[in-house]
Design goal:
The protein has 566 residues and is an alpha/beta fold. The chain folds into 3 domains: 4-84, Gyrase A, domain 2 (2-Layer Sandwich), CATH 3.30.1360; 115-366, HUPs (Rossmann fold, 3-Layer(aba) Sandwich), CATH 3.40.50; 382-558, Isoleucyl-tRNA Synthetase, Domain 1. The protein has helices at residues 4-16, 20-26, 46-49, 53-63, 86-98, 127-145, 161-173, 183-200, 202-216, 220-244, 261-271, 305-320, 334-344, 351-355, 382-400, 407-424, 436-439, 447-463, 481-491, 493-503, 507-526, 534-558, and strands at 38-41, 70-76, 79-84, 111-115, 149-153, 274-277, 280-283, 294-297, 324-330, 357-362, 365-366, 432-433. The strands form 4 sheets. The protein has a 4-stranded parallel β-sheet with strand order 5-4-9-10, with helices on both faces. Strands 1-3-2 form a 3-stranded antiparallel β-sheet. Helix 7 crosses helix 8. The longest helix is centred in the middle third of the chain and has 25 residues, at 220-244. It is globular and about 80 Å long.
């Protein structure tokens, strides 16, 4: 497919002697169609060329040769606006649909590690974990679509002081709870109860800390209980992952690194930066602008979350040779990752790895009453939410289309799709107030709206008797404003995916799919698709097919399945 931005950048480069690769990054797509197809902001060159942007734009217009596919260049303010031959645009775009749309090799030869989901063993998989799971899953799919070699890691919270607490609670009251029947529910009750006990009795809290130290030291009793809790929890988590369609390449959690932490401590000791403070071992980071020290070993000799993350960085650098390692967690962990990424520079690994560490933070999911907490027992379980979404979707489908076959299967796609899209529709850093009515609203800019638009494309194709052969499509029948708007959106699909990975922001793709669905709705309302003119019908049906393909691929990348009927 012709790269129009590249062609424009090369023509500007010829008259400015500035590298086309740099110029290409400045080129924008104007919001208003009458401002052309591509726009070059000349203020970017003002410092280098020592002229006002408008003068630069006028000079460039006079010097640049108009070559195919450019049809016209205009100056508006300090912008140089380029118009592209619409028939060439249509041909280039729709040929891609014919030849396997969306394949890319932008990331060829580059390795990406994404650490996401990471629920805590023996705790409810609640809606707070939904964000990490779906943001990480979408990034995994999109990087892969762009040709990167991606490894998805579910870094399970299967270690730490919480297990010392659970073990103590189990010792004290285990016979009062039927853990095998409803493991997460019963373990949560024990966890809430032991936390209350710890608040009132310092000795119980000390016993909990000692239990975790025993676990680290390989105590057989503690290990046996820990493994039982983990196995039961993973079975429960898998029910949620099956509903969401989530898959991982590695399930190595914190416990996996228990035998890899001594090496981290040895390396840090050799640097002379690991010092003792109140019995604990810490790295002071004040010279890096971080006032809170990074605790590597507690006063009782047990390790910390930071130690395990450092061991993971060392292991992942050696195992995956990553160019980027993304950590998809809430913004509450911003300080933690600042500390860990700074300390990682002391591990003696190549700068490539420490430069590639990125914390992909996201806002919290809040209840209308405030923050959720397992300790306080006020969480909305993800399993309950997803099943409720499916149930509500089925009720709506039964009202709208009572004779529809496979209602359960379609309700699952619509309900789960609504939840996932709701989570990915807005920028990831915003806090999200969880509200049933909002999350399951089937009107407006939602997952079901995109699914409905896709179903409409399939219905049109069916009424037309199938997708016409591309060779028979007369592209001059697709030059009206409604068709061209769709074609331009489809042409920019790869660029949208690149924007997602540049910013690690899946909502860019979500917004794009809404824009494409709206553009098709306008096209559908303004252009009669099934009509007596066979050439017009074939062209419009083929464009409908193209929209369906892009909506399906884009939704799949977000983790949403498309129903054929609704």
């Amino acid at each position: 497919m012709l790269k129009f931005k590249k062609i424009i950048a090369e023509e500007i480069s010829k008259v400015t002697n500035i590298k086309s690769e740099e110029l290409e990054t400045y080129i924008e797509i104007p919001k208003e169609t009458n401002n052309g197809d591509y726009s070059f902001p000349c203020f970017r060159l003002a410092k280098e060329l020592k002229k006002a942007p408008q003068i630069i734009a006028t000079d460039l217009k006079e010097k640049i040769k108009i070559v195919e596919p450019i049809t016209k260049i205009e100056v508006i303010g300090g912008y140089l606006n380029f118009f592209i031959n619409k028939e060439i645009l249509a041909k280039e775009t729709l040929e891609e649909i014919e030849n396997g749309f969306g394949k890319s090799e932008i990331g060829k030869g580059k390795n990406i590690v994404i650490d996401y989901s990471a629920p805590n063993i023996a705790k409810p998989f609640h809606i707070g974990h939904l964000r990490s799971t779906v943001i990480g899953g979408a990034l995994y799919n999109i990087y892969k679509q762009l040709g990167y070699n991606v490894t998805g890691i579910n870094h399970l919270g299967d270690y730490g002081t919480q297990f010392g607490k659970l073990i103590e609670g189990y010792k004290l009251w285990g016979n009062e709870y039927d853990i095998k029947k409803d493991p997460i529910e019963e373990l949560t009750k024990i966890y809430i109860r032991i936390n209350e006990a710890c608040k009132n009795d310092e000795q119980i809290l000390e016993n909990c800390r000692n239990n975790f130290k025993k676990l680290e030291d390989g105590d057989s009793y503690c290990l046996k209980i820990w493994k039982e809790f983990k196995d039961l929890s993973l079975k429960e988590f898998q029910k949620v992952y099956d509903l969401l369609g989530s898959k991982f390449d590695s399930w190595n959690g914190e416990a996996f690194y228990s035998d890899k932490m001594p090496e981290v401590i040895q390396i840090l000791e050799k640097t002379g930066k690991l010092v003792e403070s109140q019995g604990a071992k810490i790295i002071n980071l004040e010279d890096k602008g971080i006032n809170t020290p990074c605790i590597i070993e507690k006063s009782n000799g047990s390790t910390t979350y930071a130690t395990r993350d450092l061991a993971a960085i060392l292991y992942r650098a050696r195992t995956y040779d990553f160019d980027k390692a993304l950590y998809v967690t809430s913004y509450e962990q911003t300080l933690h990752f600042k500390q860990v990424f700074e300390v990682a520079k002391l591990l003696g690994i190549d700068e490539k790895y420490t430069n590639g560490l990125e914390h992909i933070s996201f806002g919290m999911v809040l209840l209308p009453t405030g923050k959720m907490s397992t300790r306080e027992g006020n969480v909305v379980k993800l399993n309950d939410l997803l099943n409720e979404a499916i149930s509500r979707a089925k009720q709506i489908i039964e009202q709208k289309n009572p004779n529809l076959e496979n209602k359960d299967e379609i309700a699952k796609k619509v309900g789960i799709g609504a939840v996932i899209f709701n989570d990915l529709a807005n920028g990831r850093v915003k806090d999200e107030i969880f509200d049933w009515d909002t999350i399951l609203n089937f009107q407006g800019e939602t997952g079901p709206y995109i699914q409905y638009t896709y179903v409409r494309t399939q219905s049109v194709i069916s009424k037309a008797g199938g997708v016409p052969s591309f060779e028979n499509v007369k592209l001059n029948k697709l030059l009206d404003e409604y068709s061209i708007k769709i074609i331009k959106l489809i042409y920019n699909f790869e660029d949208i995916l690149k924007q997602v990975t540049d910013n690690n922001e899946p909502s860019i793709l979500s917004r794009y799919l809404i824009d494409l669905a709206k553009a098709y709705s306008n096209f559908y309302n303004e252009n009669k698709i099934i009509n007596d003119d066979k050439e017009t019908q074939d062209a419009r049906v083929y464009l409908t097919h193209a929209v369906g393909e892009v909506l399906r691929l884009g939704a799949n990348l977000l983790g949403i399945e498309m129903p054929d009927k609704m």
